[in-house]
Amino acid sequence: MGAWRHNVTQPRAGFGAIAAKPGTETFGYAYDFPTSRAAHVEALRQCGDDSCEILVGFRNGCGAAAIARERHKVVAVEGATRAEAEAKALRKCGADCEILTWACTK
Fold first, then answer.
1. Dist CA 65 CA 78 (whole Å)
2. 77 forms bridges with which residues in the sheet?
3. Taking a C-beta distance cutoff of 8 angstroms, is the pair 99, 65 a contact?
4. How far apart are CA 79 and CA 85, in angstroms?
5. What would the 3-class secondary structure string for 4-31 be?
6. Which of 2, 50, 76, 81 is deepest in the core (most CB within 10 A)?
7. Considering only CA atoms, which of 17, 18, 21 is closest in space to residue 72?
């Protein structure tokens, strides 16, 4: 008698990233890339400046960046959902902050 096999489909890994130019509102993002490196490269490409930096990378989830316009402070975090990532970013950023951008994998 043959062994019973159950094939389990693994969820596709989707990588994303958010990049920004320090002290500005210039940013780029990427989502649903096959590797972390590919997501980082695309986020930096979209940001469009040699001084852009990766703020956050994420896998099978979301990232959000918040900005305090008067202080030119930008923080970014990851979360399981858009709402969670945005709430965490605003909490980490502090008073007078607003969401600059967000991205989620599928």
1. 9
2. 64
3. yes
4. 4
5. CCCCCCCCCCCEEEEEECCCCCCEEEEE
6. 76
7. 21
Cα 85 from chain centre: 9
CB contact at 8 A, 58 and 35: no
With 0-12 / 13-18 / 19 or more C-beta atoms within 10 angstroms meaning exposed / middle / buried, residue 34 is exposed
Give the Cα separation of 84 and 16 in Å (integer). 16
The sign one gets for the Cα dihedral 92, 96, 102, 104 is: positive
- Which alpha helices (H) appear in 1-106, and where do they start and end? 36-47, 82-93
Query: The tokens 């008698």 sit on which residue?
Result: 1
Residue ranges of the chain with pLDDT lower than 70?
1-12
pTM: 0.85
- Note the pLDDT of residue 52: 97
What does the block give as tokens for 22?
A: 């320090």
> What's the pLDDT score for residue 12?
65
Longest CA pairwise span in the chain (Å): 72
